[in-house]
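Sorry, I am new here, but would you mind making up a protein's amino acid sequence and the tokens describing how it folds?
***
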Amino acid sequence: MVEVADNGAGVPPEVQLHISEPFFTIKGVGKGTGLGLDIAYRISVNRHHGDLRVTSHVGDTRFQIRLPIARPA
């Protein structure tokens, strides 16, 4: 497991539902494409059969990527 955490403002629950969708962003027009978590999801979950999770509240946001030790049968 790899975990990235910060102590910022948090990610609201309504945003958490969409964070792995391609092109989803909360940034203004021209400020970003919203591809980072979509790519992370596709690599970790679809390609390596792992899991990508987010837990968040003000002061504690954590993104966890879990990869299996062995490929599922």
Notes: Helices lie at 13-16, 36-47. Residues 2-66 form a domain with the Heat Shock Protein 90 fold (CATH 3.30.565.10).
